[in-house]
Write a structure and sequence with these properties.
Chains A, B: This is Homoserine dehydrogenase. Chains A, B: Belongs to the homoserine dehydrogenase family. Two copies of one chain form a homodimer. Chain A is an alpha/beta fold and 425 residues long. Chain A contains 14 helices and 17 strands.
Amino acid sequence: MTVVKIALLGAGTVGTQVARLLSEQKEDLAARSGAQLELVGIAVRDVSAPRDPAVDRSLLTDDPESIIDEADVVIELMGGIEPARAYILRAFAAGASVVTGNKALLAAHGPELYEAAAQADVDLYYEAAVAGAVPVVYGLRESLAGDRITAVLGIVNGTTNYILDEMTVKGLDFDEALAKAQELGYAEADPTADVDGLDAAAKCAILASLAFHTRVSIDDVHVHGIRSIAKADIESAGRSGCVVKLVASAKRRPEGIELHVGPTLVPLDHPLASVRGAFNAVVIEAEAADRLMFYGPGAGGAPTASAVLSDVVAAASHKVDGGRAPRELIYGDIPVLEASRGRSSFQAEFAVRDEIGVLTKVTGVFAAHGVSIRAVVQTVGEDGLARLTVNTHEALQADLEATLAELADAEFISEVHNVNRVEES
Amino acid sequence: MTVVKIALLGAGTVGTQVARLLSEQKEDLAARSGAQLELVGIAVRDVSAPRDPAVDRSLLTDDPESIIDEADVVIELMGGIEPARAYILRAFAAGASVVTGNKALLAAHGPELYEAAAQADVDLYYEAAVAGAVPVVYGLRESLAGDRITAVLGIVNGTTNYILDEMTVKGLDFDEALAKAQELGYAEADPTADVDGLDAAAKCAILASLAFHTRVSIDDVHVHGIRSIAKADIESAGRSGCVVKLVASAKRRPEGIELHVGPTLVPLDHPLASVRGAFNAVVIEAEAADRLMFYGPGAGGAPTASAVLSDVVAAASHKVDGGRAPRELIYGDIPVLEASRGRSSFQAEFAVRDEIGVLTKVTGVFAAHGVSIRAVVQTVGEDGLARLTVNTHEALQADLEATLAELADAEFISEVHNVNRVEES
């Protein structure tokens, strides 16, 4: 049986589980790939640090290049841009295929890496880079290869979904929910990358590149985090039959691709509404297939390792049988829209003076900017102020912003609360 | 650019959409597969019958063999066992790869076809055979190739899910919901294959073969349909925080594979509980990946055609780049359990005489047969009879049946109502 040599770069949470599964499932992996998968080395920063017993200490090295040059398949789980990028390029140059879970690197340097893999006629696989074990990279790259994708909507950050879910189900404040997420290890001490939407934006760029066959980088994604979401927003969403989710959205419009990450009102009968806790889910809308959803654990050592190993099996079987991973295609070359040209339905809440004619004045400002209103609800809050909840039809972001700018200055408005996108069900 | 010749067998609902997409998406398909996909013929029974304009009449033929012998990839969408089986074997013998959506054929003759494809060194793809556009065949065949699957649970029949959903949401009787499904075209005039669970059983066999790398045929699946589900069962499930779904279940037990299709109580927080209308969903549980769900339209011309075309792109790209579809592996060779050796939690309802000591007598019978009780609820119905709802812990099917046989004869039991499996959340 052909031997396929594997080099593993990184032995953190995921790397440790990859090492364990390579050893525990040796026979199954051989049967499925047609090759004996032999782990030739594990590159780590500190070979003397304590390790899980699943990591064979005799394979540890602090010289990644030596094991890359020996390998048929390199698994890159170091994270970060450099030196991960240099090692992957070195692997390609040496004729090795690469499996990576490095979303930051792909979002920043994806096209360069795809091109280098194609030049070297080897595979680049990265199922683990988006939504852990959920096979959404496959879904976009292969399962809809005969279709035309119109939209990708994802809950791709488990930390923020956990926080919003706790706020929704238990009525916690943002700060309480964040503290709980940190306690449980779902959120880091510095939660910026998660709660400000940057992690989701990197994944959004990867998903959009795959869906629309166009170069998209993280800088093309318009990002809003969830720090400003208050209990009142969750409650007001609930009154509209919605839950608040951090949605990464990539949509194909006639005029280009719209990319957005931000808190979004999702109707309860939308498949994304039922995604609980730290789970991930991605909805793909395509012309023929209609709407598909992929759902599962978006993080965690073992689930992510499962995704890595499925890629390793595919890459190894190509070493045996020939064949290549699907081409990374950028023939689409569709323009990416400015934030202002984005379109969505919106929900906005205003505290207004409770006096005759305010409703007419507010709706008049919307109309003047060409923003069509679907529904307005007026309630009186505990503070005695009237509260207007306005739901719009689909409108241009620029028009909505002009509306809000005018309203913010209007003497009949006490306060403009959070304004959020609303996804259609 | 390499030309890959495609023969299409069948121009029904799905075949017509395949012909349309092959023509409309010609350039995208070429970019993704690396080949010019050329439709060389469409075999139909009656070339003079009226057709959708998407079907190019000049390609119609009533001589399938002539176009099979010319093709690089044969798409079989005729359905039925023969002559579909003979045509597929002929395609393999001529060196063509095959894409099929024929679940009945695969459930009956899968191993023969896999073997013939392997001998001829060509591909057999069949994503469309289970759950339409939902890429669950891929999920089992490739995306979890580095993992060990422990269970597959699916809502794989849209007709029955529609009927049960109508009963649940609108409180309809089975007969009313069936009539509505027939009116809307979700159910056939003779609904036997759907409502008696046979369609789901064929899909269950295909899913189990893939998940456990073992030969499984439809005859190995223990099947119960939904005809006996009454409004009272739906209501009683609701009181237990569950919905009733027709679940196709394949589980790996220490002693073998358990295969079951039948009405099942699914807790509201289980991902399958939220599958509405005619949608399909499949949950896959694996040791490392934990629990994944794939969700989408399980039928319909365009969605199913999308699945067919993704397989065509994969098969065509192998004609260009080399490589093969994943091996169909039966190395698992795990025994399939008799129905009596199956295990599940159950919910059973009894109408009992409302007299002192009945509860003790009923629970005593369960205990005598080694069936452990999780909860008992006693209510008094409109008929003045007391109604006992018994929920068990996981128990052997044989033990449960012995319990029920004894209770059916007991003088303190007026009636044994439906007994259903309960899935853990």
